[in-house]
Amino acid sequence: MNLKVIGYWGAYPEPDSATSCYVISDEESKIVLDIGSGALSKLTKYENINKINDIIISHFHYDHFVDIYPLQFNSMIQQNIGKRKEPINIYTPYDPNYSDTMDYKTFTKNIMYNQGPIFDINGFITTFLKTNHVIDSYAVKVKKIGKSIVYTGDTAWSDELVDFSKNADLLICEASLFDGMKGKVEGHLTAGEAGKLANEANVKKLLLTHFPHFGVIELLKKQASKYFKKEIILAEENKTIKL
């Protein structure tokens, strides 16, 4: 499997960038994890959007899902001109404010998930864990051919997330806060906690993402490295990690 970073900011995109969006792929298929603000423009820059049929949304905060709406029009136009045949599957938790808006005629189809079921999405075996956030939010584990990727989404610390991430080949972990800011923003991890999570879960690689809009971003890696001694990667646009 490969992981490509499309967007990596938290809250809102900096100029010419995007918030949370990642592509997991192999030779046969692709899954998109989150499609936040600015992500559709960047996604179409690096990927053939008509080859993407499945998008997983971790939770309904705008920086993780809002570009679903322009994507719906993209799917409509691409179907109308004959370049797309099937609707895009949008996997989401239930939310009374947004779930009904994920279905759009024949162009996008909502499939709701929770912590229980296991989904086979084009051979990617996908499971979910409810995390410690201010609204219902889920970590996502994607496995295929002996490789695994875990995406934390937005979360504060939880021991369950350690178990969920055990021995992953890659942990995509939010690092919204610098050390010393723990608890100042509810439902988020510090960089040090991200490193601690990776260490306790014994993952092979750690990708830090969901960056704050202040401070020196490179310091996040330094703070995570106090706890995690294996490879740590800072998210950047079009960064591809091969597993």
From TrEMBL:
Q: Name one Pfam family in it.
A: Lactamase_B_2
Q: Where is the Metallo-beta-lactamase domain?
A: 45-211
Q: Which domain of life is it from?
A: Bacteria
Q: Which GO terms describe its molecular function?
A: 3'-tRNA processing endoribonuclease activity
SUPFAM superfamilies membership: Metallo-hydrolase/oxidoreductase (SSF56281)
Name by which UniProt lists this protein: Ribonuclease BN, tRNA processing enzyme
Origin organism of this chain?
Geotoga petraea
